[in-house]
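Page 42, continued from yesterday. The earlier attempt failed because a stray header line got pasted into the input along with the sequence. Redoing it now with the clean sequence only.
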Amino acid sequence: MGALENILPEDLKNHAMTVGNNSASTQSELVLPFAEALRAIEIATDHHIVVLGLEAFEVRKDGLLTVGLTDASAYIRFAGDWKAYVAKMNPEAERWIREHPLGESHGYILTSASQSEFARLIRLTSYPAKLYQFAALMWMRRRGVRTTTPPWTLWRSR
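This time it went through. Structure tokens are written below.
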């Protein structure tokens, strides 16, 4: 879990479902109900943590079914001012959730980063498109999806 999950209050976490942390995944993530997801975005904003994207799921007996996702980082680029980036991105996340309210058997995963977490990602590459590819690849691997692309090949010289 990242910086956001570490600062969320226990009462909010108690309403969430935890996924991941199986043999194919070393990370676990919180699937938050509608109201708790909105509250988590508020907490992220208060602590200058950016919400990069969201996934919406239907919770089923056999797992999670993706019913929607958004990635505001694809069209809102980081321009060097962290607070301005958080101020642009997090309202987009809140807007998207409000436009996609889901019922009882649904939840949201927030992909977020603190400034230091984001800086570690940026240091990995100077190519923004490659950063997105790497994040997508690592996201898939954390969920146990096998890929043929080794992550380090994304940073070969042009």
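Notes: Residues 82-99 form the longest helix (18 residues).
Reminder to self: strip header lines before submitting.
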